[in-house]
């Protein structure tokens, strides 16, 4: 089985996106799947990128408008042409490049790992080549966001879509996408379970330590966590918190912590690479994910930092929003509390800190959960099974996108 994978240009840059892509490709090759890789055109201000060692990536040339000077700056199209015309020209170029690579490498299936822009370009190339098309259809707009027109057009032309959770699949159904095309493939942790020893930030050594990693918006629960810490410190004055995250609210939150009497008890690390965060979290006694009800994370895929924390054997306390509750079994591989409740969060943390013998078994069970359900080898095996289903249906119904037996990809 040979599959042509279409990625964003970021796959050629030193990014978390690239590391995840290469981990999946490595897993697929371990499953016996031959892979061909094509990187999309660079966006404005993106570096040229370099092909990762040991891999072959076909590239898509940068887009330039007709008559553009040869010494024009890279990415000039976005500055020389209207946005809609730029996207249209880029889509045509990518479709032609994808068709040429397909003719050269003769894959059996095209797998698009990017958004609607790339999926829309892949659709005509797949039809011209007579190949089935699989598109990643994860959405980031939240439960109430309507499906954009481009997404509808791109996804309706695909033979199968991938969603990260049943709730994400339900959102696609509600948006008019035929359910039989949608497969649920859970997200995988970025890194393996082995933990690299990382020093605790200065001033936090030897103290009971909580950790938070993620966005710094109110909806993500960081304000709730600071309030809970202020209450817990009344009876546990040595308790500390490290916050691994960056954003516009960083200074505001530092002032908020000082107002709550937490000066010197909270350390904000600022922006860190995903790998450094994943190595820092196991140094804490408890890692907290306090997302609020109605946050953008609710109903979507579990946060990558949560998956990474569990993979590293962290003891996790998380709010009971859907994406957390679908991953954690309360009292077995983590602790859930009522989302948005400061009292519930304080109670959950206090009970764990008072029973330190529970921490290691919870962390061990969390790591076992990730290894069994959310590792890259497991994810690659799920993709291989989906590929086989798509190819089987394509052979039965050639030229009919999305036509499959009931329960095929929507399992």
Structure, described:
α4 links the parallel β4 and β5. α3 packs across α4 and α7 crosses α12. The protein is built from 14 helices and 13 strands. The strands form 2 sheets. It has a 7-stranded parallel beta sheet with strand order 3-2-1-4-5-6-7, with helices on both faces. The relative contact order is 0.12. Helices cover 39% and strands 13% of the residues. It has 411 residues and is an alpha/beta fold. The C terminus is likely disordered. It folds into 2 domains: 208 residues, Rossmann fold; 164 residues, Glycogen Phosphorylase B (Rossmann fold, 3-Layer(aba) Sandwich).
Tell me the radius of gyration.
Answer: 23 Å
In the CATH hierarchy, what is the class of the largest domain?
Alpha Beta
User: Which strand order spans the largest sheet, edge to edge or round the barrel?
Assistant: 3-2-1-4-5-6-7
Percent helix, as a range, is: 25-40%
Biggest β-sheet: count, sense, barrel? 7 strands, parallel
* CATH topology type of the largest domain: Rossmann fold
Instruction: Categorize the overall geometry.
Output: elongated
CATH A-level architecture of the largest domain: 3-Layer(aba) Sandwich
How far apart the termini lie comes to 22 Å
- State the total count of DSSP E strands: 13
DSSP summary: helix tally: 14
Q: How many domain modules?
A: 2
Q: Order of helices and strands, N to C?
A: EHEEHHEHEHEHEEHEHEHEHEHEHHH
CATH evolutionary superfamily of the largest domain: Glycogen Phosphorylase B
Unreliably modeled segments: 67-86, 404-409
- Average pLDDT metric: 83
The percentage of residues in β strands lies in 5-15%
Secondary-structure class? alpha/beta
């Amino acid at each position: 089985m040979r599959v042509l994978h279409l990625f964003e240009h970021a796959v050629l840059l030193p990014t978390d996106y690239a590391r995840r892509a290469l981990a999946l490709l490595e897993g697929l090759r371990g499953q016996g799947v031959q892979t061909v890789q094509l990187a999309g055109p660079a966006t404005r201000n993106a570096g040229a990128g370099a092909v990762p060692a040991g891999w072959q990536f076909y590239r898509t040339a940068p887009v330039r408008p007709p008559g553009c000077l040869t010494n024009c700056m890279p990415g000039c199209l976005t500055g020389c042409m209207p946005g809609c015309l730029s996207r249209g020209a880029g889509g045509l170029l990518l479709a032609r490049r994808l068709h040429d690579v397909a003719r050269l490498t003769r894959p059996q299936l095209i797998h698009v790992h990017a958004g609607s822009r790339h999926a829309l370009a892949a659709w005509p190339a797949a039809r011209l080549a007579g190949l089935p098309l699989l598109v990643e259809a994860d959405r980031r707009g939240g439960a109430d966001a309507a499906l954009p027109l481009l997404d509808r057009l791109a996804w309706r032309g695909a033979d199968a879509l991938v969603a990260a959770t049943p709730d994400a699949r339900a959102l696609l159904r509600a948006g008019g996408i035929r359910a039989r095309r949608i497969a649920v493939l859970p997200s995988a942790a970025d890194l393996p379970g082995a933990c690299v020893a990382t020093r605790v930030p200065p001033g936090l050594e030897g103290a009971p330590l909580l950790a938070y990693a993620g966005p710094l918006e109110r909806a993500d629960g960081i304000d709730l966590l600071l309030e809970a810490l202020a209450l817990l410190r009344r009876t546990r004055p040595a308790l500390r918190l490290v916050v691994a995250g960056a954003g516009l609210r960083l200074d505001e939150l530092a002032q908020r912590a000082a107002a709550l009497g937490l000066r010197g008890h909270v350390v904000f690390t600022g922006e860190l690479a995903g790998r450094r965060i994943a190595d820092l979290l196991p140094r804490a006694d408890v890692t907290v994910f306090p997302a609020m009800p109605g946050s953008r994370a609710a109903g979507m895929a579990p946060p990558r930092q949560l998956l990474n924390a569990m993979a590293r054997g962290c003891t996790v306390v998380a709010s009971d929003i859907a994406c957390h509750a679908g991953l954690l079994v309360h009292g077995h591989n983590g602790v859930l509390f009522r989302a948005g409740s400061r009292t519930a969060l304080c109670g959950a943390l206090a009970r764990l800190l008072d029973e330190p013998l529970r921490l290691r078994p919870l962390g061990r069970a969390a790591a076992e959960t990730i290894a069994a359900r959310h590792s890259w080898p497991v994810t690659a095996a799920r993709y291989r099974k989906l590929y086989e289903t798509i190819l089987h249906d394509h052979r039965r119904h050639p030229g009919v996108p999305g036509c499959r037996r009931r329960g095929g990809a929507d399992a």
